C-alpha cells in the first residue's frame, strides 16, 4: 500500500503541516509507504508576470487551489486540506480522501458581519472546492459541527464522512 499526500507548500510551519507530518510518520511506523506531493504549479514565466501585473500572485493562488498535478501511482491520494479539493474538480485523482478542517470563508460567505472580503475568483474556487468533496471517496473532518454541515448543507452522504 502507498499513500500519496497532496499538500500545499508553506514557508512557515502550520497546523496543517503538523497534521500531515504526524499522520505520515504514524503510517510509516505501521509499515505503510508514503509519498509527499506538493501542489506547487510550474507556470511559464510570461504567464506569471502577466498575472502579477493584473494583481494576482498566480503561483501562490494555484498552489492553494490546484488545477492539475503530475500523476502518482498510489493506493490512495490524501488531499490534506479542503482548498486542495479544487484538484478533484479539474483532474481525476482516484481513489482520494480529503481532510477538511473547516472551510471558514465558505461557511461565512453570506454573513456580512463575519465574511472576509474576497475576489470573485477566490469565491468561485471556494465553491468549487466544496462541490469537489463529492468526488472524493471520503471526507475527513475534525468536528461534529463540520460533519453535520457537510451532510445538511453540502449534501454529502453520511457514510462518506
Strand line-up of the largest beta sheet: 2-1-3-4-5
* Gap between N and C termini: 22 Å
CATH superfamily: Glycogen Phosphorylase B
CATH fold annotation: Rossmann fold
Computed CA radius of gyration, to the nearest angstrom: 16 Å
The low-confidence runs, each spanning 5 or more residues with pLDDT under 50, are: none
The CATH C-level name is Alpha Beta
Number of helices: 7
Given helix and strand content, the structural type is: alpha/beta
The largest pleated sheet is described as:
5 strands, parallel
Number of domains: 1
Helix content: 25-40%
- List how many beta strands DSSP finds: 5
Order of helices and strands: EHEHHEHEHHEH
Global outline: globular
Tell me what the CATH architecture is.
3-Layer(aba) Sandwich
Average pLDDT number: 86
What amount of the residues lies in strands? Answer: 15-25%
Description:
- The structure is a single chain.
- By secondary structure, this protein is α/β, with parallel strands linked by helices.
- The protein has a single domain (2-160), classed as 3-Layer(aba) Sandwich (Rossmann fold).
- The protein has seven helices and five strands; from the N terminus they run βαβααβαβααβα.
- It has helices spanning 15-29, 45-53, 58-64, 86-90, 104-107, 120-132, 144-152, and strands at 2-7, 33-38, 76-79, 96-100, 138-141.
- Strands 2-1-3-4-5 form a five-stranded parallel sheet.
- The longest helix is centred in the first third of the chain and has 15 residues, at 15-29.
- It starts with a strand and ends in a 9-residue tail after the last helix.
- The mean pLDDT is 86.
